[in-house]
Amino acid sequence: MNEHARILQLSEILRLTPYQTAILEKNSHLYDLSRLVKRGGVLYVPYRNSAAHPWRDAAARLVLGQMADLIGPDDTLACGVRGAKLYSDGRVVVPNSRGR
């Protein structure tokens, strides 16, 4: 299955908006599509792991958290955030500095 067909299938399953689908198609080379999470209309999209520096990236994920984008229904809410928490009621909490 090619990337475009996979994104369309995910779009139907997760009921994504046209904006969210367009962002996924445009940046599919950056995102880990197997780990998408949608809560309260906000799509949590983690970045793929780098093949060039797997050990450094794994250490950074353990210490700092997974790097991800938060994509709202009609706007990108945050790019490259670490440590975002998604709650079942739709709230999203993003630390504003190094976990403080």
Description:
This protein is an alpha+beta fold and 100 residues long. The chain is 32% helix and 24% strand. The protein is built from three helices and six strands, in the order H-H-E-E-H-E-E-E-E. The chain has helices spanning 3-14, 18-26, 54-64, and strands at 37-39, 42-46, 67-71, 76-82, 85-86, 92-93. The strands form two sheets. It has a four-stranded antiparallel β-sheet, with no helix packed on it. The protein starts with a helix and ends in a 7-residue tail after the last strand.
The coarse overall form would be globular
- SSE ordering: HHEEHEEEE
Helix share bin:
25-40%
> Could you give the distance between the termini?
42 Å
Task: Please count the beta strands (DSSP E, at least 2 residues each).
Answer: 6
Radius of gyration: 14 Å
Top keywords for this entry?
globular, alpha+beta, four-stranded antiparallel beta sheet, 6 strands
Which helices and strands appear, and what pairs or packs with what?
Elements: H1 3-14, H2 18-26, E1 37-39, E2 42-46, H3 54-64, E3 67-71, E4 76-82, E5 85-86, E6 92-93
Antiparallel strand pairs: 1-2, 2-3, 3-4, 5-6
Helix pairs in contact: 1-2
Gist?
The protein has 100 residues and is of the alpha+beta class. The chain has helices spanning 3-14, 18-26, 54-64, and strands at 37-39, 42-46, 67-71, 76-82, 85-86, 92-93.
